[in-house]
Design a protein that fits this description.
Layout lengths: L4 H4 L4 E5 L24 H14 L7 E2 L9 E3 L14 E4 L5 E6 L3 E7 L4 E7 L1 H6 L1 H11 L7 E5 L9 E2 L1 H10 L7 E4 L2 E4 L1 H11 L4 E4 L14 H6 L8 E7 L1
Parallel strand pairs: 2-5, 3-4, 8-12
Antiparallel strand pairs: 1-13, 4-7, 5-13, 6-7, 6-8, 9-11, 10-11
Length: 252
């Protein structure tokens, strides 16, 4: 389990970035696989979701997750009944106490936000596609429509694949450079290979939106010793599936 130092100081919220340790799943999903979209047994996933919910000091019945699709779509939720609905998108926001919101990742960036004045939280799934499409910008702009000011927002960028393990193709780089010349700073060229820094790209977007209180938890999900699920590592190991890490936040 990993925590943002900045969010940890806020007594009105609870949060956590979980790795793969401490769960019930077996085999390639060992052990804290929280991904309903994986091929893992549903009974183990339910047990794991119950475990992480209790770590946030709440019940699994109060946990809301998404069917993530690498989009820029988000939901503002304040009703426990939404748990029964199929929410398709990549970010959640709420101002409801005791409602746990979260996202699943396996190399993508989990981003947790907290507006300490409005008492609103958000959990964002920022893969390269979602980040490129502006999921972070859309969430922050929605916060500002509700009266939020950048100075009151705390952002925590969770564990994700690091640049040295994130090789991309030339057309990937071209796509980003076409969007903005500034994006060239997130690429590195080493021995005829191109590498991309996803968390720095996400951080830059937050800074561009005026947010200054930003934590980055520099834990590489690809590196096996850090005990995270990694889609790219699973592909390299020729495994037919992979588990998902979960990141949660709740207003106490």
């Amino acid at each position: 389990m990993f925590y943002s130092k900045k969010l940890k100081k806020e007594i009105n919220i609870s949060h956590c970035f979980f790795n793969r340790l401490g769960g019930k799943s077996k085999g390639i999903y060992k052990s804290l696989n929280c991904g309903r979209g994986s091929k893992d047994k549903k009974k183990y996933i339910s047990k794991n979701l119950n475990i992480v919910s209790k770590k946030i000091s709440n019940s699994y019945k109060n946990l809301i997750l998404l069917n993530q699709i690498h989009s820029n779509k988000f939901f503002f939720v304040n009703d426990y009944k939404l748990k029964k609905k199929r929410l398709v998108g990549d970010a959640l926001l709420t101002n409801r106490r005791k409602l746990i919101i979260g996202v699943l990742t396996a190399d993508c960036v989990p981003v947790l936000l907290y507006d300490k004045k409005l008492k609103i939280i958000s959990a964002i799934h920022a893969g390269w596609k979602g980040a490129y499409k502006g999921i972070i910008k859309k969430v922050v702009r929605h916060l500002k429509k509700r009266g939020s000011e950048s100075k009151n927002i705390i952002a925590a960028i969770g564990p994700c694949i690091c640049q040295k393990n994130y090789e991309v193709k030339s057309d990937f780089k071209s796509k980003f450079i076409k969007q903005s010349r500034n994006n060239k700073f997130f690429f590195k060229f080493v021995k005829n290979k191109t590498y991309f820094s996803l968390n720095k790209y996400v951080k830059y977007q937050l800074i561009s939106l005026g947010i200054k209180k930003i934590d980055i938890i520099n834990k590489d999900t690809y590196n096996k010793k850090n005990n995270f699920f990694s889609a790219r590592r699973s592909i390299h190991n020729k495994e037919n599936d992979y588990g998902r890490n979960i990141s949660l936040i709740m207003i106490n």
